[in-house]
Design a protein that fits this description.
mainly alpha; 3 helices; rod-shaped
Length: 181
């Protein structure tokens, strides 16, 4: 059954018929929970705590203040105003850091994308070379066979030549034995 039919549920295969996860035939190990996992940032998976800042308790009913209390509140308000301005600058700097982190993150992911694309092209080139080499196997087998055959023929010729030389040597030895000096 074609894998597309199995993946789309149009086939009759059961999930137990699925190729094993470690199969190199189209499987992957991309875990969506890992891809979407928050690394401390605010997201639907990791929402903010929705807290609020209140410098003074909320007054739910009217009340009088003494002049000293009014002076203390005014002094504290001026200090908080300075703190608010500094806090605004700090948050602006933190936001700039977040933007810088984003640029680094985007650049790194772009680099990883290029690296993955290059790796795929390398593997495609490796596979192309492997297919080419497989295509040469029959020719190499014929070469190997022809070399083995040539070696066997050479051994036969050597053995034949050696036998002829042995026969000639024996004939000469017999002739020499018949001749007395």
């Amino acid at each position: 059954m074609p894998i597309f039919k199995w993946l789309t549920g149009q086939g009759k295969r059961q999930p137990s018929d699925a190729p094993p996860l470690n199969s190199a035939h189209g499987s992957h190990r991309i875990d969506s929970s890992q891809v979407l996992r928050s690394h401390g940032g605010i997201s639907p998976i990791n929402p903010s705590n929705f807290s609020s800042l209140r410098s003074n308790p909320l007054l739910t009913q009217p009340q009088y203040f003494t002049p000293d209390q009014a002076d203390q509140l005014a002094t504290a308000a001026r200090e908080r105003r300075k703190g608010a301005i500094a806090t605004k600058r700090a948050y602006k700097a933190l936001a700039a850091d977040e933007e810088s982190d984003l640029l680094v993150h985007l650049s790194h992911r772009a680099y990883e994308g290029v690296s993955a694309a290059v790796e795929l092209k390398k593997k495609q080139a490796d596979a192309q070379l492997a297919r080419h080499l497989h295509g040469q196997r029959a020719s190499y087998a014929r070469l190997s066979y022809s070399l083995d055959l040539a070696g066997q023929q050479a051994q036969l010729r050597i053995a034949s030549a050696q036998q002829q030389m042995d026969e000639q040597f024996q004939q000469m030895a017999q002739k020499l034995q018949g001749v007395k000096p």
